[in-house]
Amino acid sequence: MRFLIIFLIGANAFAAGPYFNVLDYGAKNDASAKSTAAIQSAIQAANQAGGGTVYIPAGKYLTGPIELVSNLVLDIDAGAVLQFEATREGLPYTKGRVEGTDCITPVPLIGGHDLENVTIRGRGTITTVNADWLKLVRQPDGVAARTLWGEILQRLDAKQSVPPEDYRKAAPALRPSFIRTMDSKNILIEGLHIVGSSMWTIHILYSQQVIIRDLTIETYPGANTDGMDIDSSRDVLISNCYLDTGDDAICLKSGKNADGLRVNRPTENVTIT
């Protein structure tokens, strides 16, 4: 009954609305130039219209992070390939969580926070190269940040507070999730072929009423390329997915330590079939 309610909500919330073709906003489907700005412009046009479908037709697109908005369908059609470059250029930082610790992280390659009524769907492919992301964090600034990240975890284990600027300094040690929704509600992810990942492939964080179905996720080989991490979230249905990953397939997480320094919140009401 609970998931019947979710499907009924989803049937209404994921309505397509007006269509916004990214080619009309300057996207290049021959990979001749990056299409990040064009895709984002189409998303903003949908947002200004009160919601709608951003349509990505067949072709190959080079892109950076895609920030979603509420009341949006991101439709990646069959034959479309979105190639996400491994770079820190145009990769800002935002609030997030890594291994149970709330911190500053790179923005997800697709996603956002405080979203409602969002669908990411299609028969297209999204892809990135895990090895290229590893090279970034192994550069000197990444190594230094990694050392600081280890110190932060030690301070948290000792129940010591950590100033926000230290989290920001440690952020270059971290890689972005591929798809992440945070503090979001009524999310549908379906149909896509996902090849490779920067880190965790699908990260559902502090979110509720989520459906993930009909995905093919192939991230092997790769470091930390979990298929799905359901992280302090509730009312989640995962069905009919194929996972061949470089790390865990599906993880259910609830944070660490109810001590005020880390968020300890259960994941509950999850069906995997």
Question: Could you walk me through the main structural features you see in this protein, from its secondary elements to its overall organization?
Answer:
The chain has 273 residues and is an alpha/beta fold. 21% of the residues lie in helices and 38% in strands. It has five helices and 23 strands. The strands form four sheets. It has an eight-stranded parallel sheet with strand order 1-3-6-11-14-17-20-23, sandwiched between helices. A seven-stranded parallel sheet has the order 2-4-7-12-15-18-21, covered by helices on one side. A six-stranded parallel sheet has the order 5-10-13-16-19-22. Helix 4 packs across helix 5 (164-170). The radius of gyration is 18 Å and the shape is globular. Residues 3-12 have low confidence and may be disordered.
Key descriptive features of the protein:
single chain, 273 residues, alpha/beta, eight-stranded parallel sheet, seven-stranded parallel sheet, 5 helices, 23 strands, disordered N terminus
